[in-house]
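Checklist before submission:
- one chain only
- standard amino acids only
- sequence pasted in full

Submission:
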Amino acid sequence: MKKIILTLKKEPALPIEAETITPENFAGRTLDEIKKLIVWRGKRKEELGDYFKVEGEKSEEVSETHIILKGDLSKVKYIGKQMATGKITVKGNAGMHLADEMRGGEIVVEGNVSDWSATEFRNGILRIKGNVGNMFASAYPGNPRGMRGGIIVIEGKAGNSLARKMRRGTIIVYDSVGDNLAAQMIAGTVISLGNIGNRPGMLMKRGTIICFGKIQEMLPTFIYDNTYSPLFIRYYFKELREKLNIRVPVKVEGLYERYHGDVSELGKGEIFIYKG
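Returned file contents:
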């Protein structure tokens, strides 16, 4: 892939909105043209080159464009918004709204990601090596659906209201998850290798939550079914490992408690808790 490297020259005094940082906007442009792409600081229109040193080589094909961002980008918002192909690597932290409405391709973040990122994520692969904030992979207020497909891997912790109104796709969290996980979930799969906070699956209709740690507080509207060894979980992890090279540091064979709910809604969701 052709690499285009953006190195942060100075930390913005105020957060900047940089939704132009996508392979679609970079492909076919010279480095000088990329520097002139627009970013917003409040109501003020500025250029990408005001904040980033731009290096690399011109890429003609969007699918062959690899954007590498260097520096602490905690105040840089909307990186990879609506991208559909190509790759972005962030060598540091990323600001709010990373990968919003992402439709394909791959984003890798080597640090932490702020609140309201991966909102209404649709497809592609997102790998976060650090922690993520609140409302990650959720729906915007008033919208009926959140995440609608794709794979998200979070190697650190996740905040509150992860996967709110999730419709489809898979999320794997290596560490703990906060309160209200997968609230109003419609379908999809969320896997936590650590502990989960209060009220997971609140008002969920369908979908699957798998917990390898402990759940702080289960809602009374989830009904215990039985304890058994579900074969599909082993095959699910096998597919993730073989097809996407996603390897999780846990033993998945063993017994799981199964609960169904939320019975105050459709009640066809399920929560599995690993018992060993």
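Reviewer check: Residues 115-276 form one domain.
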